[in-house]
Amino acid sequence: MKAKTVKIALKGSGLYLGMEKGCFVIKRKKRVIERYPMFENIIDEIHVVSGNMVSTGVLASCGFWGITVLVKTRRGKPVAVLRSMDDYSHVKTRIAQYESLKNGKGVEIAKAVAYAKLEGQDKVLEHYNLERHKMDKIKAKIESLQPKSLKEARKKLVYLEARATQRYFRQIFTLLPKEIRIFKRKTYGAYDGVNNTFNLAYTILQYRVFIAILKAHLEPFLGYIHSLQFGKPSLVCDFMELYRYLIDHYVIGFCKNLTRKDFILKKDWLSHDRLAKRQVLSKTKTDQLVEGLEKYFEVKVDIPRVKHGFKQAIESLINEEALLLAKYLRGERKTWRPRLPNLPSIEMNI
Predict the structure, then answer these.
(1) Same domain? 130 vs 109
(2) What share of the chain is helix, strand, coil (3-state, %, to 5)?
(3) What is the domain extent for residue 159?
(4) pLDDT for 242-274, tens place per residue?
(5) Where would a tag sit more exposed on the chain, N or C end, judged by fewer CB atoms within 10 A?
């Protein structure tokens, strides 16, 4: 009988995760409320929300068995990932990744990511009967690029995708209710609730991608399209581009049922000397968005698994794609072209 893969989640507050007789146990006020036998199931991840406790015995077991521990804020924002020290012992993949900056593979990866991002956006535009990207022209422009360096390729690709992305968001924002509709995409430091809803959803995607990159033994901070900066996980940012359209599709559906009453004003430090009020989702709606996205990552899509099966969950697709990229970098595959699923059907229980 095949073992079941499970995730352990400590939500809310006041919970304690410990170990008893070969089992992970969740307790509330010393009473066991959930039990997970280690050797009957495959424990894939443990999610811990601020306000709960985890024993050092659990953390040691996670390090030994290679179980990822994800730490989140009370609002569900991931802030840390704990992994086994052995995950950093796969030097060959990282060496190949560094070499790709100079041997031409980096340019090819950058081209593949840029095209895949716009191809995904085009799927969203088609789904909602909006004006689609001119993918033939975009493909021809990308393929015709003959940059002398990755830096030059990055500059040209970013300009190309930025213009297309601006047109894309102008269109999809028209799908939102007039009461909350906006007209311009804003990333970090946005004041309006809709942009901050997209930003929160992308943050959930970011930690999924970050974990996939680590599992593939790639260097998260060495990317191709996004520039190399201190503290910026460039490869994670690159890889997120492949799946943003799936998140957009979900958030569009989520926002269609929102009103102004679903947002609150929150004071945030945007810099060391600048305190501002930002519009964000209420606690109830934030929880709904985060929990809905967690389920969304388990939705099956029409991309066959590498070894077996005609469909797989979005989460496993992200993990597989990172592994395929690593194989391409190591020379175990001749090419790498991201596999993009069609938009899945989703149900909004809001």
Answers:
(1) yes
(2) 45, 20, 35
(3) 91-329
(4) 999 999 999 999 999 899 999 998 877 666 666
(5) N
